[in-house]
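Input sequence (512 aa), recorded before submission:
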Amino acid sequence: MEASGAAEMGPVLCGCLLLWTLHVPATQAAHPGIKARVTQRALDYGVQAGMEIMEQMVKQKHIPDLKGSETLEFLKIDYVNYNFSNIKIHTFSFPNTSLAFVPGVGIRALTNHGTANISADWEVRAPLFRDAGGADLFLSGVYFTGVIIPTQDAFSHPALKLQDCYAQVSHAQVSFTGDLSALYNTFAEPMEKPILRNLNAVLCPLISDEAAGLNTNLSSLEVLTKIDNFTLLDYSLISPPEITEHYLDLNLKGAFYPLEDLTDPRFSPEPFDLPEHSDSMLYIGISEYLFRSASLAHFAAGAFSVTLSTKEISNHLIQNSQGIGNVFSRLADLYILFQPLVLRIMATEPPVVRLQPGNFSLEIPASAILLTQPQNSSELEPIVSMDFVASTSVGLAILGQRLICSLSLNRFRLSVPESNRSDIKVLRFENILSSILHFGVLPLANTKLQQGFPLPQPYNISLVNSDIEVLEGFVLISTDLKYEMSSRQQPSFHGLGDLNLIRGQGMGQPAP
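Predicted structure, C-alpha cell format:
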C-alpha cells in the first residue's frame, strides 16, 4: 500500500530527471562553453514519461507485508491481529498532474484526483477465530504538491531538494473477499480511517526518501568524459540553474583538456544568448570556446600529426582520375626514385576556429615534409619541406547521441619565402600536397571524427527530432527528448522499508 503513496511523486521526480543533468560548484570561467535550455514542453513530457516509468515500476515492485492489530469495540473484540501479504498495485490514475517553473526557485509539481486499486491476501487472528482470504483496497482523492529544487551536497555533487511538500489521500475503501467476506466487510470501515491517518503521515517522508535515493544516483554522475585517447571534456555546471517562468537554463563549462593536464585554456569563453524559442523540449548552445579548447587540447596532446608511408597513402587516397594515379605519376615525374616515400604532416599551431552564421570554418597552420629512405640505410632523408595553411569547412550532424564533425578542404596555400617560389619542385609539390590532403588526409581525419563527442544524456534519455545550425559565435542544437527504459533496468522506489499504515496511537493490543 505504501507504494501508492510513493508512486504519486513518480512523475515529479522523473520529470525532474529529464531536466537535471550535471551540477558542480562554480569554476573560474565567467561564461559557459555550453548552455542548455529546458522548456515547458520538456516538463510536459516529463509528466508523460513519468507515468510510463511508474507503470513499469509497479509491475516489478515488491511491497512488504502489512501487519498490525485493531480493536473492534462494536464487536466487543479486544483485538484482531491482521497480516496483508502479496500486495499488488493493479491500476492507478493521476489525471491532473503537472510540472511548472517557479521563477528563481525550482519546479512545482502538482497532482490531484489520483486513484489506485490494490489487491492483497489477508489473514486475521482473534481470541475466538482465525481466517484468511483476499482483499481489495481502493484509494481516491490522491493529492500532492511540492517544489523540486536543484541543488548540491556538501561534496559538490548534484542533488534534489523537496520543499513545501503536502500530500494527502482523501478516501480509502477496503473490501474483503472469501466465504465470510460479508462479516469482515462489516468492520472494514473502521479500519479505513487509521489507514488514511497513517498513510497521510508518511507520504511526504516517503517522497523525501525517494529523492534521497535519487541523489545517490546523481552523485555518481561523471562531469569529466573521456572523448578519445587525447582529451577529456568537462560538462560541469559553473553556476546554479537560472529559472524563469518559461524555461530553465543550465550553464555548463564545456571545455576540452589534454588527458594529463586540466589547466584551463589561456582564453575565456565569450557570452552568448540562446534564442527565445520554445518549439523544442531542449536547446543546447555550444560556443566557439568549446571548439577552440578542443583544438588547443588536441594540439597540446600531439593529435594533429600524421606520418604516411607510400602504402598508407595508397590505402587512403580516393581511387579516381584526380586521385592516386595522378598524384603518384607526378611524384614519379618529379622524383625518379625507387626508394620508399614518407610524408609527415603536422600542425604548427592550434587550428583556428571561426563560427559565423551558416559557416563553421577551421584554418590549420601546418608543415609538410616529404622524406625518402635510401637503400641500405635506416635513416630518413628529407626531399622537400614547407609550411602551409589549409582552410576547411566543418560540417555538423547529430548521429545517435553524439555531435559529429566532418572536414572538407576549401583552399590550400603555401607559406614559403618568396625567394623559393621559383623552385619548380616546390611549385609542383604544392599541387601534389593539396591532392594528398584532399583525397587522403581529410578522409582519414573524417573517419576518426566519426566517433564525435557525446552530448549530455542522463538516465536513458535520447535526443530525437534534432536540428542543428551555426550562429554567430555558437552552434545551436534544437531537440526533443525520449525516455527509453532498458530491459535490464530494474526501476525501484527507495526508502520504503517496512511500513505499517494502521499501527499507531490509539490502536489495539499488539499481536502476541
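Checked by second reader. The longest helix spans residues 188-218.
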